[in-house]
Amino acid sequence: MKQPAVYILASRRNGTLYIGVTSNLIQRIWQHKNDLVAGFTKKYQVHYLVYYELCNDMLSAITREKQLKKWNRDWKLKLIENTNPSWRDLWEDIAGLKPDAGFPPSRE
């Protein structure tokens, strides 16, 4: 089932962020988690889904993705923390699996 979405992946709490857009969120995140997507997320091990928005159509999803990519890092972190303060990996929620205990600890 196609459902346009914009999403943010993180390598860890306050770590490297990646913003993407897709028409199939479950499939796309599974691809990232299994390193089937060559490039940035594979190279930097950015695999934790920490934020997502479902959109009405692909054009609005792409527009939102471009908007978020222009935001400064602090705004992105606040967006994540407003909806996911523990930085929990939301993958299990969207895939219908049992939620995990939380995000891996920060290495700061």
Observed structural traits:
108 residues; alpha+beta; GIY-YIG endonuclease; 5 helices; globular
Structure summary:
The protein is an alpha+beta fold and 108 residues long. 39% of the residues lie in helices and 18% in strands.
Number of helices: 5
For the record, what is the CATH homologous superfamily label? GIY-YIG endonuclease
Question: What is the mean predicted local confidence, pLDDT?
Answer: 90
CATH topology: GIY-YIG endonuclease
Oligomer: single chain
Label the CATH architecture.
3-Layer(aba) Sandwich
Shape: globular
Q: Work out the count of structural domains.
A: 1
Task: Report helical residue fraction.
Answer: 25-40%
Structural class label:
alpha+beta
Strand content: 15-25%
Reported for the largest beta sheet, the result is: 3 strands, antiparallel
SSE pattern, N- to C-terminal: EEHHEHHH
- Report the count of strand segments: 3
Radius of gyration: 13 Å
Give the termini distance in whole angstroms.
39 Å
CATH class placement: Alpha Beta
Model regions low in confidence, pLDDT < 50 over at least 5 residues: 99-108
Strand order of the largest sheet: 2-1-3
